[in-house]
Design a protein that fits this description.
This protein has about 260 residues and is of the alpha/beta class. The chain contains eight helices and twelve strands. It is an enzyme of class 3 (hydrolase). It comes from Streptomyces fildesensis.
């Protein structure tokens, strides 16, 4: 009988310790951000009263359809995220838990992160302009492109900015629109020589695109697996590796040609 009592006491003590550890884990802040589908913006249109893309030094054309850049929205870098928040995000389809360093790679204070994201956006816009003008054979010394998109940071809109500049100036090169009148969304960084790079949060960006009326989504080819896993119904996924490939894919969609797929 005493042995049974000792065993019961040991088990009770262990259960108490486990409960205490779980309580501490639930209350302890984690180095994680909760992300959800963010805003999208038509780069062919206006944002807060300003055209997103303004071109001077060469004629521009009237466009139809939309080219929507996509974003994710995340908890602030100084916000406390706990285990219950992560568990809710794990089982939800409209949110995700991501390492804070992946969402805010610059680290530092809130102000430093905002400055880092703003600089990345500026660098991305410069690269997007360079890639578009190079494709069009236009000199940046003669053609000036101004990009305006408030309250958005980071480099992931580069591809859509390049496509928007090309559509504004040249369209499909035959008098038509790159979009074929559709709402095309996408994501991807871009270099000045037109290479498209990976970004984060693609499944959530797809949801944002679908929510805002897109029927086609351009995604960096290296992220096909994540993009395909949770693709919303009615959204066509098109992988790209560079600007020329994105333009070719859009042309194929408009003419009924062969379109790459994940």
């Amino acid at each position: 009988m005493p042995a049974v009592s000792r065993r019961a006491r040991v088990l009770a003590l262990c259960a108490t310790l486990v409960a205490a550890l779980l309580a501490v884990a639930a209350l302890a802040p984690l180095p994680v951000s909760i992300v959800v589908p963010g805003m999208t913006a038509d780069v062919l249109g206006a944002d807060k009263g300003h055209q997103v893309i303004t071109v001077t030094g060469t004629p521009v054309r009237t466009t139809s359809g939309q080219l929507r850049m996509t974003t994710i929205a995340a908890t602030q870098p100084d916000a406390s995220v706990h285990l219950p928040d992560v568990l809710r995000a794990w089982f939800a389809t409209d949110q995700a838990a991501m390492p804070r360093g992946a969402v805010y790679p610059g680290g530092g204070s809130v102000q430093e992160i905002e400055q880092h994201n703003a600089q990345e956006m500026t660098d991305s816009q410069d690269a997007a302009t360079g890639a578009a003008l190079k494709h069009l054979g236009l000199s940046p010394a003669k053609v000036k492109v101004e990009l305006h998109l408030a309250d958005v940071g980071g480099p992931s809109a580069g591809l859509m900015f390049s496509l928007g500049i090309i559509d504004k100036i040249d369209g499909n090169g035959r008098g038509g629109d790159l979009t074929g009148g559709r709402t095309v969304a996408g994501t991807g960084t871009i270099t000045a020589d037109g290479k498209v790079g990976a970004v984060g949060g693609v499944p959530l960006k797809e949801r944002a695109a679908k929510r805002d009326g897109a029927t086609v989504f351009l995604v960096p080819k290296g992220e096909c697996s994540d993009a395909s896993a949770e693709l919303p119904a009615g959204l066509r996924l098109v992988p790209v590796t560079d600007l020329e490939g994105a333009l070719a894919a859009l042309a194929a969609i408009n003419t009924g040609g062969k379109v790459p797929s994940c």
